[in-house]
Amino acid sequence: MSAPRLILASASPRRVALLAQIGITADAVDAADIDESVFGNERPADHAARLAWAKASIVAQRHPGAVVLGADTVVAVGRRILPKAESDAQVRACLELVSGRRHDVLTAVTVVDAAGNPHHRMSTTTVIFKRLSAAEIDAYVTSGEGLGKAGGYAIQGRAEALVRRVQGSWSGVVGLPLFETRTLLSGAGIDV
């Protein structure tokens, strides 16, 4: 019996690269187009879990019998969810907020197995940035690297030199915690 097809419910090149890092190649990439707005007083973990589940379940409906992998990453300072930065001003505001302090990066992973059953895992990582000078923030904003990134930064790029400590899953901060993902995919019959 052959392994089921694996569909990645994400257009993120970082997630594709992280899967490749552990020897997994999705048979197809099919991003779900969903509203990622935060509901009222939604907690960061609940928000990430809801979005990962929504992405995976929508794409699973389009690919019956396949295993579908969905994920969502949220950067939070306390209960405050930082945006996926869409402007230089948002990147700057995020960096000013995380400068010199700890914050959490939560990545929820949902795998819908070939029978249509969802399975979930959550990775929570604490990231501590150094106290950033105005010049460091200006240089990072100018680089453009923080645009489109949750929390306004990409740890796998220039921002890594600004991080004092990571407690938890580095790959989870990038966007796909590999330990949790591998466990879920293995349980769904994907050769890992």
TrEMBL record:
* EC category name: hydrolase
The cofactors it requires, by name, are:
a divalent metal cation
Where found? Cytoplasm
Protein purpose: Nucleoside triphosphate pyrophosphatase that hydrolyzes dTTP and UTP. May have a dual role in cell division arrest and in preventing the incorporation of modified nucleotides into cellular nucleic acids.
Q: What is its EC number?
A: 3.6.1.9
Q: Does the keyword Cytoplasm apply?
A: yes
SUPFAM superfamilies, from UniProt?
A: ITPase-like
Q: Name one GO biological process term.
A: nucleotide metabolic process
Name of this protein? dTTP/UTP pyrophosphatase
Task: Write down the species.
Answer: Glacieibacterium arshaanense
The catalytic activity, as recorded, is: UTP + H2O = UMP + diphosphate + H(+); dTTP + H2O = dTMP + diphosphate + H(+)
CDD domains in UniProt = Maf
Identify the main location.
cytoplasm
Provide this UniProt record's keywords sorted from A to Z. Cytoplasm, Hydrolase, Nucleotide metabolism
One Gene Ontology cellular component annotation held by this UniProt entry = cytoplasm
Q: Which residues form the active site?
A: D72 (proton acceptor)
* Gene behind this protein: maf
The record, for InterPro entries, names: ITPase-like_fam, Maf-like
Which Pfam families does the entry mention? Answer: Maf (PF02545)
Query: What does the similarity note say?
Result: Belongs to the Maf family. YhdE subfamily.
Query: Do the record's keywords include Hydrolase?
Result: yes
MF terms in GO? dTTP diphosphatase activity; UTP diphosphatase activity
List the residues marked with site Important for substrate specificity.
R14, T73, Q156
